[in-house]
UniProtKB/TrEMBL annotation:
SUPFAM superfamilies (alphabetical): Homeodomain-like
Any Pfam family hit: DUF433
Family matches, as InterPro entries: DUF433 (IPR007367), Homeodomain-like_sf (IPR009057), WH-like_DNA-bd_sf (IPR036388)
Name of the protein: DUF433 domain-containing protein
Domain of life of the source: Bacteria
Length: 113
């Protein structure tokens, strides 16, 4: 059974995540794209997840469902997160202002899945 994408204020600061985990949609997308981890390796590391869980997470991000669902918080490092207290330093060289258009990476990834 595919896990839902949820957001609760007490887990991951309210960022959209895979139900029953602390893996945010951004974590999944960025690890599989910027982190260059192949899907099969990711599924070995996170052996409690299914391919459908990953596809659900990537699709959620690609379609910017977080905007439609009015989530508690946008994912860390995403350009939708306008909070001034967070800058994704490790990705600064990739996109302006240190934040990524994570949904664009998700769209690219979704085409490959």
């Amino acid at each position: 059974m595919t896990r839902r994408i949820v957001n609760t204020k007490d887990t991951c600061a309210g960022e959209p995540r895979i139900e029953g985990t602390r893996l945010t949609c951004s974590d999944v997308v960025l690890t599989l794209t910027v982190g260059q981890m192949p899907l099969e390796e990711y599924l070995e590391v996170y052996d409690y997840l299914s391919r459908d869980d990953i596809e659900t997470s990537v699709s959620y991000c690609a379609t910017k469902m977080c905007m439609l669902e009015n989530v508690i918080a946008f994912c860390h490092g995403c350009s939708l997160n306008t909070s001034s207290d967070y800058v994704a330093v490790e990705f600064e060289s990739l996109e302006d202002e240190g934040k990524l258009d994570v949904w664009r990476h998700a769209n690219d990834l979704l085409r490959k899945l």
